[in-house]
Amino acid sequence: MKLTANTIPAFLLLAGFASALTVRQDSTSHLLQPRRTKSLLISPAAQPALPTIQEATAAAAAAGLNLDNIQGDILIGMKKNQELFYFFSIADAAAFKPKLASDILPLITTTTQLLQVSTQPTTMLNIAFSATGLSALGITDSLGDADFAGGQFAALTALGDPGSTNWVPQFAGTNIHGVMLFASDTVANIDAAVASVESALGSSITKLYTLAGAVRPGSEAGHEPFGFLDGISNPAVEGFIATPLPGQAPVAAGTILLGESGDTGTRPAWAQDGSFLAFRQLSQLVPEFNKFLTDNPIVMDGLTPQQGSDLLGARMMGRWKSGAPVDLSPVFDDPVLGADPTRNNNFTFEHDGVNLATNQTFCPFAAHIRKTRPRADLGTPEDAIHHIIRAGIPYGPEVSDQEAASNTTTTERGLAFVAYQSNLANGFQFLQQIWANKPNFVHTGEGYDPIVGADAGAPRVVTGLDPTNSTKSLTLPIDFIVSRGGEYFFAPSLSAINTTLSV
């Protein structure tokens, strides 16, 4: 993304910061002046809708949750329109810390602000710090998470990466101290916000790397680069969503937020209402994936080769591109079902008269959505500790005609993967290492997750993808999703920034 050269004059910038802080501290919401007439977020019909401000306020009050203290991206999910991830190191902590309080804190967008268009900023800003970043700020407290303390680079073998060969160089190591998340409905808005923040922070930080993401165009809005509708199965967090949709997993606030009910870790008091942010840049080989589907169609009576290829892709994912689950629509896509949030997540993999432990007619055991949320496979009621809030966004251009014709990726595209949780070992790292990458989870011999499962770049074997022969195996010759690395961050509450990180 190109950054604009123009910056806002310093006196106007500081006046804006002061004004924003005054508005936030004033509890009389009627004094808020409308800042937008159009939301900076997208809202695909098939994804769980955000609660209204009235619903969220009531839920938060009942649970004792302070939505004004929680950074907005954590509970919002995959609803950004345009987003820039700005990775930085702290060059001068003594200069950065007061600027964090005076210049950045007033601009940080809270959960409450994002729930109404009238209180949304022109550009959302959130910030998070790596373990080395907290150390650079002089924070010596343990946050009670060994994976966060070690950083993602130390976990690359456990995550199935073939070393750091494919990693963006800036991620290889522990040099990244933090990430700022800028989100809006236009690139121009983000560019202006980045320029303003860079001007304010000056030489106290060093920009190391940026990655720009954007919702896909037209009818593909909300779909990831392979074409599948995304973000359907985010959980309902207590204190934010009072009434979960059918099939939506209710989770305690402490599953996502440190120091809240359900968080079993030992945390310093100032860490309350923060969350661990797992970031991964996942390159997706879309032409190669499509070629694999074309070459390996499922052969069934009544299916054309194209329908057979579409069915294979749907069974690999566990959903059709519309979002309809194969567990409810096992042979053909059902776009009406896919677009209905009251039905598209309402299943457990159980069916009357069908043996859950052996039958793969409806949904393969290895399907991505089943590997990462086994539902009834692990018994009911469902264990809620392994849920995460997914808040990523696609990056890179659409597939070109030349790439499609040659079945070869020449320009990188993929998903800027973001997951929030209070415990990385129970959250993202568990889902990737223990579930997606284990060929014998939950059922012996099912193979790897065919979408995100990884074995250090080696070919992966999957069974159960052919509904006519559940013992038939299929070898995935390459990883269609290639890890480009990432880092683990802590997204602190606003009070933590004010009382601990900036002093």
From TrEMBL:
This is Fungal peroxidase. Residues 266-435 form the Dyp-type peroxidase C-terminal domain. Belongs to the DyP-type peroxidase family. It comes from Roridomyces roridus. It comes from the Eukaryota. The keyword Metal-binding applies. GO terms for cellular component: cytosol. PROSITE patterns: DYP_PEROXIDASE (PS51404).
